[in-house]
Amino acid sequence: MSTPLQSNPPQPATRAFLSGIMAAWTSVFALVLAGSYVGIGALAHEFGFSVGWMVASTLLVWAAPAQVILVSTLGAGAALIEVALAITLSAVRLLPMVMALLPLLRTERTRQRELILPAHFTAISMWVESLRLLPQVPRENRIAWCNGIGAGFMGVACAASAAGYYLAGGLPLPLAAMLLFLTPMSFLVSVVRNSRLVVDRLAFGLGFVVGPLLTWGKVDLALMWTGLIGGSAAYAASRLYSARKRRPP
Amino acid sequence: MSGWIDWHAYLVLILVGFLPNEIWRMLGVVLVRGLDEGSEVLVWVRAVATAVLAGVVAQLIFFPAGALAVMPMGLRVGAALCGFAAFLLVRRSVLAGVAVGEAVLLAGAVLLVP
């Protein structure tokens, strides 16, 4: 399907919210999140946090990589300022994600504060699925729909964090490895599926190569540089390519 | 845990977990204000976001933590390649890719890791 899908007529906001929740629960990411958060819940138990704290961290932080850092560094007794720095560096990626998503949700009448909740719900799973499914959602319904898919995913993650907390210690090694492999495997295929434009495919390929090279070379802020170098190079290359195509030979 | 320690743990969660993370989301809300949906800046911003995601994925495969780090590098890369091939073969299905990748990792973990 290369042509944009026709938007359906607008629905009441509650209906849109519920269909967002259904989109979350029927998405393959519901499984992925469940698996990943069982792993993080188990980790929180090992490091001696309470189950209420673990669920609160899912509600407030809502970013699996940051939560892994938070639990393992706090649990190991790292200095608070060090923990805060590590978290904020891992969260820089949320800025371009929010900036790419919000313009799809706005109408002329949208108030700034209505965008705060969808921004809080923005995480890799929600972002990937929203960019894929939003073209089918009427523009007037998109904020409610995004709040629905975000709440749906977050509900799954909270239940899984609590379940993992009580399962902790009983996970055999191959199963624990499988839970940790869910995130990279699902993101690999779903981001590629979402990349319809040349610039996005190039950015993914470049990021995949540049990221490990920078990490291997122990460059500081490796992920931020990966984004800036890979993304800018992909953008420049696709601009050059389309400028060439437009100019008659 | 006593009541005081619990209260303290939640305060730490907000100060070093929630705020340093959330600031980037809220900065995005502010910065995107005047930007039009079709603007060129956003094409670049999306390319940056996509490259960062690719970097995250590659790091989790090449430099993993915990139980995944126990698995040999060849097994992790092999499982990811098999999953990706399955995704391409089965009508670009994410579920097929994840299922095959996980199955290869499990088989390898059982056969190769003592």
Describe this structure in words.
The complex is a heterodimer of chains A (249) and B (114). Chain A contains 12 helices and no strands. Chain A has 249 residues and is mainly alpha-helical. Chain A folds into 2 domains: 182 residues, no CATH class; 55 residues, no CATH class. In chain A, helix 2 runs parallel beside helix 4, helix 2 crosses helix 9 and helix 11 runs antiparallel to helix 12. Chain A starts with 12 loop residues before the first helix and ends with a helix. Chain B has a domain of 50 residues. Chain B has 5 helices and no strands. Chain B is 82% helix and 0% strand. In chain B, helix 4 runs antiparallel to helix 5. The model of chain B has no long low-confidence stretch (mean pLDDT 89). With 114 residues, chain B is an all-alpha fold.
- Poorly predicted regions of chain A are 1-5
SSE pattern of chain B: HHHHH
Report the mean per-residue pLDDT of chain B as an integer: 89
Distance, first to last CA of chain B: 38 Å
Strand content of chain B: under 5%
Span between N and C termini of chain A?
Answer: 31 Å
What is the H/E order of chain A?
HHHHHHHHHHHH
Q: Could you state the oligomeric state of the chains shown?
A: heterodimer
Tell me what portion of residues of chain A adopts beta-strand conformation: under 5%
The number of helical runs of chain A is 12
Largest interface: A-B, 99 and 75 residues
Number of strands of chain A: 0
- Sequence stretches where pLDDT stays below 50 over 5 or more residues of chain B: none
What overall form of chain A do the CA principal axes indicate? globular
Largest β sheet strand count, sense and barrel closure of chain A: none
Mean pLDDT of chain A: 88
Number of strands of chain B: 0
Structural class computed from helices and strand pairing of chain A: mainly alpha
Major sheet characteristics of chain B: none
Number of helical regions of chain B: 5
Q: Cα-atom Rg of chain A, whole angstroms?
A: 20 Å
